[in-house]
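Sharing in case it's useful to others searching the archive later.

Someone asked me privately for the predicted structure of PIN domain-containing protein, so I'm posting the question and my answer publicly. Question first, with the sequence:
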Amino acid sequence: MDEIKYVDTNVILSLVEEDANFERARKLKGLTNLVTGEITQLELNSFYSRKLKDEIKARASTLYLLQFVNVKVIEADWNKLFRKALDLSYKLELKTLDVLQIASAFLSGSKIFITFDKEIISKREIVKKYTGVSVDDLT
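And my answer, the predicted C-alpha cells:
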C-alpha cells in the first residue's frame, strides 16, 4: 500500500492561488493517499472568510478545494494532538500552527509531510528524528 502523505495548508493554497510554488504544488494531482488535518480546514476557512467576506462561500470554497486536491481531512483527537504538539514544541522550535500540523501528521500515521514552509524544511532532520515523518517540498 502507498504511504500516507500529509499535506500542509500552504501547498494546497499554492495550487489554487497559483503563486510562486504553483508548479511544485501541481505535483499533488499525481499523488495518492493524501491527508490533512482539521487545522488545515480551519486555516482554509479562515483564508476564504477573509478573502470572500461570505461564510457560505468560504465553507464551500474550502470543501471544493479539498475535494479538488483529493485530500482527505482526518479528525483529530484534540487531547492527543495537544499533548504531542506540546512535547514536540520544545524539540522542533517552530511556530505553533506548524508544530500542530506536524503533530497531526504524526498522529495520522503519515510517513511524509508535504510543505513549502522554509522553516519546517530547514528542520527536516529534526522533524524526522523526533517523529519519523519525512519532510518533502516536492522538488
